Structure formats: C-alpha cells, structure tokens
TrEMBL record:
<dbReference type="InterPro" id="IPR036388">
    <property type="entry name" value="WH-like_DNA-bd_sf"/>
</dbReference>
<dbReference type="Pfam" id="PF04255">
    <property type="entry name" value="DUF433"/>
</dbReference>
<dbReference type="InterPro" id="IPR009057">
    <property type="entry name" value="Homeodomain-like_sf"/>
</dbReference>
<protein>
    <recommendedName>
        <fullName>Antitoxin</fullName>
    </recommendedName>
</protein>
<dbReference type="InterPro" id="IPR007367">
    <property type="entry name" value="DUF433"/>
</dbReference>
Length: 84
C-alpha cells in the first residue's frame, strides 16, 4: 500500500494510525486537531498541547482539506462560507 499525500502537511500512511490522515512526520491524527478547533481551543494552545510538533500552517492545511471535503459533498458549501 502506498502513502497518500493529502496536503502539504497531511498524509495517509497505512503503516501509521491504520492509514487515517495524520500530520506528516507525526502520529497526530488530523481529526483530533479538528476536534480541538471545534471545541474552541486557540491554535497556539493546540500547538503547545502537541509539544510544538504542529505549526499554524499545518493546522490551516487541515482546515483547508476539511473544507474541500465538504465542497465535494455539496459544492455550494465553499461559496456559502466565503463571505461571512
């Protein structure tokens, strides 16, 4: 099985966390970080929580990919949130 490059900072490697999306070079699951954002946690606190293994750019990449996934589900979503 091959590694899927999902974003600049995000991969899905079958040998890491059963192939779930993680941040490159870590075992940090993207879904865990998205849950932290959803709970209202500040990005700097998330970075600190993960021992500095993440960057603001990596977190932004996760949000971008989540938004892309939603736009595949419903293309109108990407335009609905563009001007809020």
């Amino acid at each position: 099985m091959t590694i899927k490059i999902l974003g600049r900072y995000i991969i899905a490697d079958p040998s890491i966390c059963h192939g779930e999306p993680t941040f490159r070079g870590t075992r940090i699951l993207v879904k865990d970080v998205l849950e932290q954002i959803e709970s209202g946690m500040a990005w700097e606190a998330i970075i600190e929580e993960w021992g500095g293994k993440l960057t603001r750019d990596a977190i932004a990449d996760a949000i971008h990919l989540a938004r892309e996934a939603l736009s595949v589900y419903d293309p109108e979503i990407s335009t609905e949130f563009a001007c809020t």
